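Protocol step 6 of 9: fold each sequence in the batch and record its structure tokens directly after the sequence line. For illustration, a two-sequence batch is reproduced in full.

Sequence one:
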Amino acid sequence: GSVWCRHCGATSAGLRCEWQNNYTQCAPCASLSSCPVCYRNYREEDLILQCRQCDRWMHAVCQNLNTEEEVENVADIGFDCSMCRPYMPASN
């Protein structure tokens, strides 16, 4: 049978991603509740941001971003997470 996200209806797990929670959630949806880097659930005070490549959310600290200012700056230019960066063509 076909696999689809019970949360958003997506039929793809996400760019270079695996299906989560026993094939019921695509990676971007699963990343709304826990970080795909450290696998911990978010707490109220955690800074999180979204990768424009894989659409996953993750802890800012897991990407070496420690302040709200750093997160805002990188979000402005478009954030590429550490899991996607190795696959991206080098920019000049």
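Sequence two, same batch, same settings:
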Amino acid sequence: MTIPAQLLPALSLADPSWRPILEQGLHAMAAANPAYLPALAGDDYLPTDNRLFAAFAQPLGKVRYVLVGEGPYPRAESATGVCFMDGAVRELWSETGLSKPVNRATSLRNFMKMLLVASGQLQADDTGGSAMVPVAQAARAGGAIQTLAQLQDRLHQNGFLLLNASLVFRSHVPPAVDARAWLPFLQTVLAALAAQAERPTMILWGKIAEQLRKLPETAGLPQIAAEHPYNLSFIQHQGMQELFGPMRLLEAQ
């Protein structure tokens, strides 16, 4: 089946190592549900600006971790095509804590606080305003990275593929419906990753992402799951702290 022409420019944002795999995945989607891609191509969806496959800028051979979230942010400025990277966020810090855009992006806020707990800069039971003041001051003085773009670069340097279970958000379509349609695509991607000499670890955030555990393509991949970061309890997740702590993602280099 032919991939709709409207979707082809989006493939250009992916690393060339992914191009045949992504095309194979789209053909698998079309075989499973022939009406889906033509309908999507003619619809309004997020992310915009051909960023549908932006997550695949990470070359296939460099993937060490596959971080799977639920879906794009439901706002055009925020949806970047990269899992939980909110395009509305630039600066990470304010004079008294995290920046206002970070605090509005609940998942990102809780992820950063989890990193600060893992590094010993915050106590797990005290991550509020007063505790954040000295942390932010030290960060702004040069002790930490300053922007979300730098955080995304750090994750890429550590081998992360930042993927969503559904690659699109549509306000008039339940997220679970789009996620189901993208499942054959994800199976193709996961099969390619499982075939690598160094198999990456899957990090599954939230109930939609955890459904991937049932797929045969993930059976041979190491996996770790957690509640979605929009839950406050994510900050205290021991498994996430142990995984991300040694990476020191927020430290200035």
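Proceed to step 7 once all outputs are recorded. Observation for sequence two: DSSP finds ten helices and four strands in the chain.
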